[in-house]
Protein backbone atom coordinates (compact mmCIF):
# COMPACT_ATOMS: atom_id res chain seq x y z
CA UNK A 1 0.00 0.00 0.00
CA UNK A 2 2.79 2.42 0.89
CA UNK A 3 4.59 1.64 -2.37
CA UNK A 4 1.41 2.35 -4.31
CA UNK A 5 0.66 5.57 -2.40
CA UNK A 6 4.23 6.82 -2.73
CA UNK A 7 5.07 5.66 -6.24
CA UNK A 8 5.22 9.25 -7.54
CA UNK A 9 7.40 10.55 -4.70
CA UNK A 10 10.72 12.09 -5.68
CA UNK A 11 14.06 10.64 -4.63
CA UNK A 12 14.70 11.92 -1.11
CA UNK A 13 17.75 12.41 1.08
CA UNK A 14 20.72 10.21 0.09
CA UNK A 15 18.67 8.41 -2.57
CA UNK A 16 19.11 11.52 -4.74
CA UNK A 17 22.70 10.33 -5.08
CA UNK A 18 22.34 6.54 -5.02
CA UNK A 19 19.20 6.32 -7.15
CA UNK A 20 18.76 9.52 -9.14
CA UNK A 21 22.33 10.37 -10.10
CA UNK A 22 23.90 6.91 -10.23
CA UNK A 23 21.02 5.25 -12.03
CA UNK A 24 20.67 8.02 -14.61
CA UNK A 25 24.39 8.08 -15.37
CA UNK A 26 24.39 4.38 -16.28
CA UNK A 27 21.07 4.71 -18.10
CA UNK A 28 22.02 7.68 -20.27
CA UNK A 29 25.52 6.38 -20.95
CA UNK A 30 24.23 2.89 -21.76
CA UNK A 31 26.60 1.23 -19.27
CA UNK A 32 29.65 2.68 -21.06
CA UNK A 33 31.71 2.02 -17.92
CA UNK A 34 31.25 -0.30 -14.97
CA UNK A 35 32.36 2.49 -12.62
CA UNK A 36 30.97 5.95 -11.97
CA UNK A 37 32.79 9.18 -12.84
CA UNK A 38 34.72 10.65 -9.95
CA UNK A 39 32.16 13.44 -9.41
CA UNK A 40 29.52 10.80 -8.56
CA UNK A 41 31.72 8.08 -7.09
CA UNK A 42 31.33 7.66 -3.33
CA UNK A 43 33.45 4.51 -3.21
CA UNK A 44 30.64 1.95 -3.06
CA UNK A 45 30.09 -0.76 -5.66
CA UNK A 46 27.69 0.81 -8.19
CA UNK A 47 25.54 -2.33 -8.47
CA UNK A 48 22.43 -0.55 -7.17
CA UNK A 49 22.77 2.02 -9.93
CA UNK A 50 23.19 -0.78 -12.47
CA UNK A 51 20.02 -2.41 -11.20
CA UNK A 52 17.93 0.74 -11.49
CA UNK A 53 19.27 1.57 -14.95
CA UNK A 54 18.48 -1.95 -16.14
CA UNK A 55 14.94 -1.77 -14.73
CA UNK A 56 14.43 1.56 -16.48
CA UNK A 57 15.60 0.10 -19.76
CA UNK A 58 13.08 -2.72 -19.41
CA UNK A 59 10.05 -0.83 -18.06
CA UNK A 60 10.73 2.86 -18.73
CA UNK A 61 12.41 5.54 -16.65
CA UNK A 62 9.93 6.91 -14.13
CA UNK A 63 9.51 7.39 -10.41
CA UNK A 64 6.79 4.73 -10.30
CA UNK A 65 9.04 2.13 -11.93
CA UNK A 66 11.81 3.08 -9.49
CA UNK A 67 9.62 2.58 -6.44
CA UNK A 68 8.18 -0.70 -7.70
CA UNK A 69 11.74 -1.88 -8.37
CA UNK A 70 12.08 -1.90 -4.56
CA UNK A 71 8.92 -3.95 -4.05
CA UNK A 72 10.53 -7.40 -4.53
CA UNK A 73 12.99 -6.60 -1.76
CA UNK A 74 10.17 -5.43 0.52
CA UNK A 75 8.33 -8.69 -0.07
CA UNK A 76 11.60 -10.53 0.54
CA UNK A 77 12.04 -8.77 3.88
CA UNK A 78 8.56 -9.87 4.99
CA UNK A 79 9.28 -13.41 3.84
CA UNK A 80 12.56 -13.55 5.76
CA UNK A 81 10.94 -12.20 8.93
CA UNK A 82 8.32 -14.95 8.74
CA UNK A 83 11.10 -17.52 8.43
CA UNK A 84 12.87 -15.99 11.44
CA UNK A 85 9.72 -16.27 13.52
CA UNK A 86 9.25 -19.94 12.55
CA UNK A 87 12.84 -20.64 13.51
CA UNK A 88 12.86 -19.00 16.92
CA UNK A 89 9.39 -18.30 18.31
CA UNK A 90 7.54 -20.95 20.29
CA UNK A 91 4.69 -19.11 21.99
CA UNK A 92 4.41 -15.73 20.29
CA UNK A 93 2.59 -15.41 16.99
CA UNK A 94 4.69 -14.46 13.96
CA UNK A 95 2.44 -11.42 13.54
CA UNK A 96 3.99 -9.77 16.60
CA UNK A 97 7.48 -10.04 15.17
CA UNK A 98 6.29 -8.91 11.73
CA UNK A 99 4.45 -5.81 12.89
CA UNK A 100 7.04 -4.70 15.46
CA UNK A 101 9.97 -5.00 13.06
CA UNK A 102 8.14 -3.68 9.99
CA UNK A 103 6.98 -0.64 11.96
CA UNK A 104 10.54 0.14 13.04
CA UNK A 105 10.85 3.83 12.03
CA UNK A 106 14.24 3.36 10.37
CA UNK A 107 13.04 0.43 8.27
CA UNK A 108 9.66 2.02 7.53
CA UNK A 109 11.25 5.35 6.61
CA UNK A 110 13.61 3.58 4.21
CA UNK A 111 10.84 1.35 2.84
CA UNK A 112 9.14 4.29 1.08
CA UNK A 113 12.40 5.36 -0.58
CA UNK A 114 14.34 3.98 -3.52
CA UNK A 115 17.10 2.97 -1.16
CA UNK A 116 20.03 0.53 -1.32
CA UNK A 117 19.55 -0.03 2.41
CA UNK A 118 16.38 -1.97 1.64
CA UNK A 119 18.47 -4.31 -0.51
CA UNK A 120 21.05 -4.58 2.28
CA UNK A 121 18.32 -5.39 4.82
CA UNK A 122 16.87 -8.15 2.65
CA UNK A 123 20.22 -9.85 2.09
CA UNK A 124 21.11 -9.45 5.78
CA UNK A 125 17.92 -11.25 6.86
CA UNK A 126 18.43 -13.87 4.16
CA UNK A 127 21.94 -14.46 5.49
CA UNK A 128 20.64 -14.95 9.05
CA UNK A 129 18.05 -17.48 7.97
CA UNK A 130 20.60 -19.26 5.80
CA UNK A 131 22.93 -19.59 8.79
CA UNK A 132 20.24 -20.79 11.19
CA UNK A 133 18.61 -23.15 8.68
CA UNK A 134 21.99 -24.49 7.53
CA UNK A 135 21.56 -23.40 3.89
CA UNK A 136 25.10 -22.66 2.73
CA UNK A 137 24.11 -22.04 -0.90
CA UNK A 138 21.66 -19.30 0.04
CA UNK A 139 24.23 -17.90 2.49
CA UNK A 140 26.65 -17.50 -0.41
CA UNK A 141 23.97 -15.62 -2.37
CA UNK A 142 23.15 -13.40 0.61
CA UNK A 143 26.78 -12.58 1.38
CA UNK A 144 27.44 -11.73 -2.27
CA UNK A 145 24.38 -9.47 -2.30
CA UNK A 146 25.59 -7.68 0.82
CA UNK A 147 29.05 -7.13 -0.63
CA UNK A 148 27.61 -5.85 -3.91
CA UNK A 149 25.27 -3.26 -2.43
CA UNK A 150 27.79 -1.15 -0.46
CA UNK A 151 31.01 -1.12 1.51
CA UNK A 152 28.86 -1.22 4.64
CA UNK A 153 27.44 -4.46 3.28
CA UNK A 154 31.01 -5.77 3.10
CA UNK A 155 31.38 -4.85 6.78
CA UNK A 156 28.21 -6.79 7.62
CA UNK A 157 29.64 -9.84 5.83
CA UNK A 158 32.77 -9.60 7.97
CA UNK A 159 30.60 -9.35 11.09
CA UNK A 160 28.65 -12.46 10.09
CA UNK A 161 31.92 -14.34 9.66
CA UNK A 162 33.01 -13.18 13.12
CA UNK A 163 29.67 -14.26 14.55
CA UNK A 164 29.92 -17.74 13.06
CA UNK A 165 33.48 -18.12 14.31
CA UNK A 166 32.43 -17.19 17.84
CA UNK A 167 29.45 -19.53 18.02
CA UNK A 168 31.42 -22.29 16.30
CA UNK A 169 34.54 -21.90 18.43
CA UNK A 170 34.09 -25.18 20.39
CA UNK A 171 34.85 -27.09 17.18
CA UNK A 172 37.08 -24.47 15.55
CA UNK A 173 39.52 -24.38 18.47
CA UNK A 174 40.61 -27.90 17.52
CA UNK A 175 41.95 -26.26 14.34
CA UNK A 176 40.61 -28.89 11.98
CA UNK A 177 40.76 -27.38 8.50
CA UNK A 178 37.41 -28.86 7.52
CA UNK A 179 35.54 -26.94 10.25
CA UNK A 180 37.13 -23.68 9.12
CA UNK A 181 36.39 -24.50 5.49
CA UNK A 182 32.67 -25.07 6.22
CA UNK A 183 32.40 -21.57 7.66
CA UNK A 184 34.55 -19.85 5.01
CA UNK A 185 33.19 -21.53 1.87
CA UNK A 186 29.86 -19.64 1.59
CA UNK A 187 31.65 -16.31 1.95
CA UNK A 188 34.21 -16.89 -0.83
CA UNK A 189 32.09 -15.34 -3.65
CA UNK A 190 31.57 -12.21 -1.54
CA UNK A 191 35.26 -12.05 -0.67
CA UNK A 192 36.29 -12.45 -4.30
CA UNK A 193 33.80 -9.81 -5.46
CA UNK A 194 34.96 -7.35 -2.78
CA UNK A 195 38.63 -7.89 -3.57
CA UNK A 196 38.05 -7.61 -7.32
CA UNK A 197 35.95 -4.45 -7.05
CA UNK A 198 38.37 -2.72 -4.68
CA UNK A 199 41.34 -3.67 -6.89
CA UNK A 200 39.68 -2.46 -10.11
CA UNK A 201 38.47 0.70 -8.41
CA UNK A 202 41.92 1.46 -7.02
CA UNK A 203 43.60 0.79 -10.36
CA UNK A 204 41.26 3.22 -12.15
CA UNK A 205 40.91 5.93 -9.50
CA UNK A 206 43.89 5.59 -7.16
CA UNK A 207 41.75 5.58 -4.02
CA UNK A 208 39.41 3.44 -1.92
CA UNK A 209 36.34 4.71 -0.03
CA UNK A 210 37.15 8.42 -0.52
CA UNK A 211 39.82 10.86 -1.65
CA UNK A 212 40.79 14.33 -0.34
CA UNK A 213 38.84 16.18 -3.06
CA UNK A 214 35.71 14.05 -2.65
CA UNK A 215 32.49 15.82 -1.57
CA UNK A 216 32.22 13.11 1.08
CA UNK A 217 35.78 13.47 2.37
CA UNK A 218 34.78 15.52 5.46
CA UNK A 219 32.59 12.61 6.60
CA UNK A 220 35.73 10.44 6.87
CA UNK A 221 37.75 12.86 9.01
CA UNK A 222 39.20 10.96 11.95
CA UNK A 223 38.18 12.40 15.29
CA UNK A 224 40.06 12.99 18.50
CA UNK A 225 38.87 12.06 22.00
CA UNK A 226 36.40 14.97 22.20
CA UNK A 227 34.85 14.06 18.86
CA UNK A 228 34.59 10.40 19.82
CA UNK A 229 32.82 11.33 23.06
CA UNK A 230 30.40 13.53 21.10
CA UNK A 231 29.67 10.67 18.71
CA UNK A 232 29.22 8.34 21.68
CA UNK A 233 26.48 10.64 22.95
CA UNK A 234 24.90 10.67 19.48
CA UNK A 235 25.10 6.86 19.38
CA UNK A 236 23.24 6.73 22.68
CA UNK A 237 20.65 9.10 21.24
CA UNK A 238 20.22 6.87 18.18
CA UNK A 239 19.49 3.93 20.48
CA UNK A 240 16.72 5.93 22.17
CA UNK A 241 15.38 7.80 19.14
CA UNK A 242 12.04 7.36 17.38
CA UNK A 243 10.35 5.29 20.09
CA UNK A 244 13.28 2.95 20.67
CA UNK A 245 13.48 4.34 24.20
CA UNK A 246 10.54 2.15 25.26
CA UNK A 247 12.17 -1.00 23.88
CA UNK A 248 14.74 -0.82 26.64
CA UNK A 249 12.11 -1.43 29.33
CA UNK A 250 11.46 -5.08 28.35
CA UNK A 251 15.13 -5.47 27.44
CA UNK A 252 16.33 -4.45 30.91
CA UNK A 253 13.65 -6.58 32.54
CA UNK A 254 14.79 -9.63 30.59
CA UNK A 255 18.45 -8.98 31.30
CA UNK A 256 17.77 -8.64 35.01
CA UNK A 257 15.55 -11.69 35.15
CA UNK A 258 17.97 -13.89 33.24
CA UNK A 259 21.24 -12.19 34.11
CA UNK A 260 22.84 -15.54 34.96
CA UNK A 261 21.32 -17.56 32.16
CA UNK A 262 21.26 -15.24 29.15
CA UNK A 263 22.44 -18.07 26.97
CA UNK A 264 19.41 -20.21 27.85
CA UNK A 265 17.14 -17.22 27.36
CA UNK A 266 18.13 -16.78 23.71
CA UNK A 267 19.08 -20.32 22.82
CA UNK A 268 16.87 -22.58 20.73
CA UNK A 269 17.26 -26.34 21.17
CA UNK A 270 17.46 -28.37 18.00
CA UNK A 271 14.58 -30.82 17.68
CA UNK A 272 15.49 -34.06 19.40
CA UNK A 273 18.67 -32.64 20.93
CA UNK A 274 17.61 -30.76 24.02
CA UNK A 275 21.14 -30.07 25.22
CA UNK A 276 22.41 -28.64 21.96
CA UNK A 277 21.83 -24.97 21.26
CA UNK A 278 21.44 -23.09 18.02
CA UNK A 279 23.64 -19.99 17.51
CA UNK A 280 22.54 -17.28 19.90
CA UNK A 281 21.16 -14.02 18.41
CA UNK A 282 22.61 -12.14 21.37
CA UNK A 283 26.11 -13.01 20.08
CA UNK A 284 25.10 -11.62 16.69
CA UNK A 285 23.79 -8.48 18.39
CA UNK A 286 27.11 -7.95 20.14
CA UNK A 287 29.12 -8.51 16.95
CA UNK A 288 27.01 -6.09 14.95
CA UNK A 289 26.75 -3.53 17.72
CA UNK A 290 30.49 -3.38 18.37
CA UNK A 291 31.68 -3.48 14.76
CA UNK A 292 29.15 -0.99 13.36
CA UNK A 293 29.80 1.36 16.28
CA UNK A 294 33.52 1.64 15.49
CA UNK A 295 33.05 3.61 12.27
CA UNK A 296 30.14 5.49 13.87
CA UNK A 297 32.41 6.73 16.67
CA UNK A 298 35.70 7.26 14.86
CA UNK A 299 34.60 9.38 11.88
CA UNK A 300 32.93 12.77 11.61
CA UNK A 301 29.97 12.13 9.31
CA UNK A 302 28.92 8.47 9.59
CA UNK A 303 26.14 8.84 12.16
CA UNK A 304 23.01 8.24 10.05
CA UNK A 305 20.31 6.04 11.59
CA UNK A 306 20.24 3.74 8.55
CA UNK A 307 23.85 2.75 9.14
CA UNK A 308 22.65 0.96 12.27
CA UNK A 309 19.58 -0.68 10.72
CA UNK A 310 20.90 -4.30 10.93
CA UNK A 311 21.72 -3.97 14.62
CA UNK A 312 18.43 -2.18 15.38
CA UNK A 313 16.45 -5.03 13.84
CA UNK A 314 18.59 -7.62 15.63
CA UNK A 315 18.03 -5.87 18.96
CA UNK A 316 14.23 -5.90 18.56
CA UNK A 317 14.43 -9.51 17.42
CA UNK A 318 16.41 -10.52 20.51
CA UNK A 319 13.94 -8.79 22.83
CA UNK A 320 11.01 -10.60 21.17
CA UNK A 321 12.81 -13.96 21.55
CA UNK A 322 13.36 -13.19 25.22
CA UNK A 323 9.69 -12.32 25.69
CA UNK A 324 8.76 -15.56 23.93
CA UNK A 325 10.48 -17.44 26.80
CA UNK A 326 8.60 -15.56 29.54
CA UNK A 327 6.23 -17.86 31.47
CA UNK A 328 3.97 -14.93 32.45
CA UNK A 329 1.60 -14.57 29.48
CA UNK A 330 0.09 -11.26 30.62
CA UNK A 331 3.47 -9.66 31.13
CA UNK A 332 4.60 -10.97 27.77
CA UNK A 333 1.60 -9.41 26.03
CA UNK A 334 2.08 -6.13 27.89
CA UNK A 335 5.69 -5.80 26.74
CA UNK A 336 4.84 -6.82 23.17
CA UNK A 337 2.07 -4.21 23.08
CA UNK A 338 4.49 -1.64 24.46
CA UNK A 339 7.03 -2.44 21.73
CA UNK A 340 4.37 -2.21 19.03
CA UNK A 341 3.18 1.15 20.37
CA UNK A 342 6.75 2.42 20.60
CA UNK A 343 7.52 1.61 16.98
CA UNK A 344 4.21 2.96 15.71
CA UNK A 345 4.41 6.28 17.57
CA UNK A 346 8.14 6.58 16.87
CA UNK A 347 7.25 7.39 13.27
CA UNK A 348 5.56 10.59 14.49
CA UNK A 349 8.54 12.00 16.42
CA UNK A 350 9.46 15.45 15.09
CA UNK A 351 11.99 17.59 16.94
CA UNK A 352 12.04 21.41 17.10
CA UNK A 353 13.49 22.91 13.93
CA UNK A 354 16.85 23.74 15.52
CA UNK A 355 17.50 20.06 16.29
CA UNK A 356 18.76 18.04 13.32
CA UNK A 357 17.12 14.66 12.81
CA UNK A 358 17.35 11.78 10.38
CA UNK A 359 14.35 12.43 8.17
CA UNK A 360 15.01 9.38 6.00
CA UNK A 361 14.75 7.24 9.15
CA UNK A 362 11.10 7.94 9.89
CA UNK A 363 7.81 8.01 8.03
CA UNK A 364 7.29 11.51 9.46
CA UNK A 365 8.92 12.98 6.35
CA UNK A 366 5.98 11.80 4.15
CA UNK A 367 4.14 15.20 4.04
CA UNK A 368 7.23 16.87 2.57
CA UNK A 369 6.51 15.56 -0.92
CA UNK A 370 3.16 17.33 -1.29
CA UNK A 371 4.46 20.48 0.40
CA UNK A 372 7.36 20.59 -2.05
CA UNK A 373 4.95 20.34 -4.98
CA UNK A 374 2.94 23.23 -3.59
CA UNK A 375 6.07 25.33 -3.31
CA UNK A 376 7.18 24.52 -6.87
CA UNK A 377 3.72 25.50 -8.13
CA UNK A 378 3.99 28.78 -6.23
CA UNK A 379 7.41 29.54 -7.70
CA UNK A 380 6.14 28.85 -11.21
CA UNK A 381 3.07 31.06 -10.67
CA UNK A 382 5.22 33.85 -9.23
CA UNK A 383 7.67 33.54 -12.14
CA UNK A 384 10.63 33.02 -9.77
CA UNK A 385 13.49 31.13 -11.41
CA UNK A 386 14.70 28.16 -9.37
CA UNK A 387 18.31 29.26 -9.89
CA UNK A 388 17.48 32.46 -8.01
CA UNK A 389 16.59 30.48 -4.87
CA UNK A 390 19.21 29.28 -2.42
CA UNK A 391 18.62 26.25 -0.27
CA UNK A 392 20.34 23.28 1.38
CA UNK A 393 20.50 19.48 1.18
CA UNK A 394 18.50 17.60 -0.06
CA UNK A 395 17.25 20.15 -2.63
CA UNK A 396 20.47 21.46 -4.18
CA UNK A 397 20.87 20.68 -7.86
CA UNK A 398 18.80 19.85 -10.95
CA UNK A 399 15.22 18.73 -10.49
CA UNK A 400 15.88 15.76 -12.76
CA UNK A 401 18.11 14.21 -10.10
CA UNK A 402 15.00 13.95 -7.93
CA UNK A 403 12.02 13.53 -10.25
CA UNK A 404 13.53 12.10 -13.47
CA UNK A 405 11.76 14.92 -15.35
CA UNK A 406 14.75 15.88 -17.47
CA UNK A 407 14.61 19.44 -16.10
CA UNK A 408 18.15 20.71 -15.54
CA UNK A 409 17.00 23.78 -13.64
CA UNK A 410 17.16 23.58 -9.87
CA UNK A 411 17.93 25.32 -6.62
CA UNK A 412 21.46 26.45 -5.80
CA UNK A 413 23.42 26.17 -2.58
CA UNK A 414 22.39 28.91 -0.18
CA UNK A 415 24.35 32.11 0.31
CA UNK A 416 22.45 34.39 2.65
CA UNK A 417 24.72 37.30 1.75
CA UNK A 418 23.92 37.18 -1.96
CA UNK A 419 20.65 35.30 -2.55
CA UNK A 420 17.39 37.10 -3.18
CA UNK A 421 15.33 34.10 -2.08
CA UNK A 422 15.95 31.28 0.39
CA UNK A 423 13.99 28.04 0.52
CA UNK A 424 13.93 26.54 4.00
CA UNK A 425 12.23 23.46 5.44
CA UNK A 426 12.59 21.71 8.76
CA UNK A 427 13.66 18.58 6.83
CA UNK A 428 16.88 20.47 6.02
CA UNK A 429 19.57 20.00 8.66
CA UNK A 430 22.20 22.27 7.10
CA UNK A 431 20.79 25.60 8.28
CA UNK A 432 22.59 26.80 11.40
CA UNK A 433 20.68 28.28 14.33
CA UNK A 434 22.07 31.69 13.42
CA UNK A 435 20.85 31.37 9.84
CA UNK A 436 17.37 30.32 10.99
CA UNK A 437 17.23 33.25 13.42
CA UNK A 438 18.39 35.62 10.68
CA UNK A 439 15.77 34.40 8.23
CA UNK A 440 12.96 34.72 10.75
CA UNK A 441 14.15 38.12 11.96
CA UNK A 442 15.34 39.91 8.83
CA UNK A 443 13.68 38.21 5.86
CA UNK A 444 10.10 38.17 4.61
CA UNK A 445 8.23 34.85 4.47
CA UNK A 446 6.42 35.14 1.13
CA UNK A 447 5.14 31.55 1.01
CA UNK A 448 4.64 28.98 3.76
CA UNK A 449 3.11 25.50 3.58
CA UNK A 450 2.76 23.14 6.54
CA UNK A 451 1.33 19.70 7.20
CA UNK A 452 1.62 17.24 10.12
CA UNK A 453 4.65 18.93 11.65
CA UNK A 454 6.56 19.35 8.39
CA UNK A 455 6.81 22.78 6.76
CA UNK A 456 8.49 24.53 3.86
CA UNK A 457 8.97 28.31 3.64
CA UNK A 458 10.18 30.67 0.94
CA UNK A 459 11.97 33.70 2.34
CA UNK A 460 12.65 36.85 0.32
CA UNK A 461 15.21 39.53 1.07
CA UNK A 462 13.13 42.57 2.06
CA UNK A 463 14.74 44.87 -0.54
CA UNK A 464 14.80 42.03 -3.15
CA UNK A 465 18.20 43.33 -4.29
CA UNK A 466 21.46 41.44 -4.67
From TrEMBL:
Keywords of the record: Membrane, Transmembrane, Transmembrane helix
Keyword Zinc: no
The keyword Glycoprotein appears for this protein: no
Positions of transmembrane segments: 65-82, 94-126, 138-162, 182-202, 282-301, 307-323, 335-352
Name of the molecule in the record: Glycosyltransferase RgtA/B/C/D-like domain-containing protein
Organism listed in the record: Flavilitoribacter nigricans (strain ATCC 23147 / DSM 23189 / NBRC 102662 / NCIMB 1420 / SS-2)
